[in-house]
Structure formats: structure tokens, C-alpha cells
Amino acid sequence: MVTVNAIKKGIVIDHIKAGYGIKIFKYLGLENADFTVALIMNAPSNKLGKKDIIKIENAIDMDYIVLGLIDPNLTINIIEEEVIKEKIKLKLPERVEDIIKCKNPRCVTSIERDIIHVFYLVDEYSGEYKCQFCDEIYFHSEV
């Protein structure tokens, strides 16, 4: 069994769907971190079967909207003095700006410059999003 020590102060991203940890790790740019970071993949989980976990011994800025889009079921734990001070549960965002890019060649966002790509959540169960301008459908798993 692998042992990863508790962190004194920082962030633990828990309940990440197995295999998505590396995607979040890269999105946060943690491969270039000059502080302690642990990526644990395929850890046993009673709730998920397997899960990924990221432990960051530092405070960093994170976009919860993007993280919720990547994996809406993850939990962010803020750690101080080796104790969870705050627990943040994410969900799929209702509105997403300039994260999903519309690929419809006839969409105004493909033709005009400087138009913000806006998508709205249509179906939370399937993770379906619709472009504000052309109604093109995307799924959060495509991000």
C-alpha cells in the first residue's frame, strides 16, 4: 500500500473520477509546481469503486466552474493545520463562458471575432450544454 502523508496547509481535491486526476493536474499546471503535490490515481473508494486524489501543499487559485465542468462530483477540501476547514462540493455550472468553443462553422462565434462563447446547461443528468447563439449541443465529457 502507498502512504501519502497528511498536508499541514493546502488543498485536497477528492472524489475525482478515476482517470480524470491527470486532466485536472495538467489544467492546474501542477507539473510546474515548486511546492509539494501528490497525484494519487485509482485509489480504492467505497462510493466510486476507484477514484483519483490530488493533494496540494499550498494555496492556489482555482476556477471552480472549469473543475465542475471536468468532474462535477469532486470535492475540494481546504486544509489548515492538518484539519479540513472548508469542504466545497462542485456541480455542473449553469452557464459556461469561453471554456467550451463552438465548433459549428455557421455559428456567429466562428465568423466574428471577440464574441464570447456562451453555453447553457440544458440537461444536468446527461451533462448537455447548448450554444447561446446556434443551439449546437456539447456534453461536459467533451471538455
Automatic annotation (TrEMBL):
Domain (Aspartate carbamoyltransferase regulatory subunit C-terminal) ranges: 95-142
Keyword 4Fe-4S belongs to the record: no
InterPro entries: Asp_carbamoyltransf_reg_N, Asp_carbamoylTrfase_reg, Asp_carbamoyltrfase_reg_C, Asp_carbatrfase_reg_C_sf, Asp_carbatrfase_reg_N_sf
Pfam families documented for this protein: PyrI, PyrI_C
Source domain of life: Bacteria
GO cellular component labels: aspartate carbamoyltransferase complex
Keywords carried by this UniProt record: Metal-binding, Pyrimidine biosynthesis, Transferase, Zinc
Every Aspartate carbamoyltransferase regulatory subunit N-terminal domain range: 3-91
Biological process, per Gene Ontology: 'de novo' pyrimidine nucleobase biosynthetic process; pyrimidine nucleotide biosynthetic process
SUPFAM superfamilies: Aspartate carbamoyltransferase, Regulatory-chain, C-terminal domain, Aspartate carbamoyltransferase, Regulatory-chain, N-terminal domain
Molecular functions (GO terms): metal ion binding; transferase activity
PANTHER family: ASPARTATE CARBAMOYLTRANSFERASE REGULATORY CHAIN
UniProt-recorded name of the protein: Aspartate carbamoyltransferase
Taxon lineage: Bacteria, Bacillati, Bacillota, Clostridia, Eubacteriales
